[in-house]
Amino acid sequence: GDSVTQMEGPVTLSEEAFLTINCTYTATGYPSLFWYVQYPGEGLQLLLKATKADDKGSNKGFEATYRKETTSFHLEKGSVQVSDSAVYFCALSAPNYQLIWGAGTKLIIKP
Amino acid sequence: DTAVSQTPKYLVTQMGNDKSIKCEQNLGHDTMYWYKQDSKKFLKIMFSYNNKELIINETVPNRFSPKSPDKAHLNLHINSLELGDSAVYFCASSQTGGNQETQYFGPGTRLLVL
Question: Do A38 and B41 touch (CB under 8 A)?
């Protein structure tokens, strides 16, 4: 069945470092791909999405490109801030209006 | 205006009790969900309703019963609470059709069973 694999956390970086969080997927068909972010004590919120191959989603300095050939949707940011500390979830769309979720990657940014 | 709201935000209760969590969305969406998030942040879908019809009913103990009185509301009732039910429960909603798969989440209900 469809699945999403994310790199395990926590990922710890210094402020202004470059961020990559890896996400790969297995799916039949052509799903949409998502990154959600969960700040401490809050619900999940959509960070960015891409609906077809080679699309790039971007928001708040974060980017991810839908790569069909490598079945990947890696999240990147050029210069992270302490306020980016959160848990990041990769997900793909599935039948029955579901999202298939990765396990989440905790990101810790140190000043 | 809050798009997806849940009540209560915190719930502390004894084993064996029965409790309910309520969810409301004012986005006009036709699909609503309940998720359970454990202490390691793993997210598990429990139920989903589309236009008040149950469409996803994952392997969840039958002590958990969802109810959707209308498209804007999805409540979760839990009977005979157990220690393992302690978690954060999230409600979410989405609109079907086109590329509208984005789900919008509530703030969560933190349930602690003692």
Answer: yes
Mean pLDDT over each residue of chain B, to the nearest integer: 92
- Average pLDDT over chain A, rounded to an integer: 95
- Quick: pLDDT tens for A14-59: 999 999 999 999 998 889 999 999 999 999 999 999 999 999 999 9
d(CA B102, CA B95): 8
Element (H, E) at B4: strand B4-7
Q: Which residues 47-86 of chain A have a CB within 8 Å of chain B? A: 49, 51
* Two tokens, residue A61: 């300095």
Query: How does pLDDT run across B48-75, given as a tens digit for each residue?
Result: 998 888 888 888 899 999 999 999 999 9
pLDDT of residue A28: 86
The mean per-residue pLDDT over the stretch B28-41 comes to 94
Q: Is A103 on the interface with B (CB under 8 A)?
A: yes
Closest by Cβ to A46, choosing from B55, B90, B102: B102
Q: Which residues pair with A59 in a beta bridge?
A: A62
Could you tell me if B31 lies within 8 Å of chain A, comparing CB atoms?
Answer: yes
C-alpha–C-alpha distance, residues B33 and B39, integer Å: 20
- Do A42 and B45 count as a contact with CB atoms less than 8 A apart? no
Which amino acid, one-letter code, is at A34? F
Shortest distance, CA A24 to any CA of chain B (angstroms): 17
Chain centroid, CA A111 distance in Å: 23
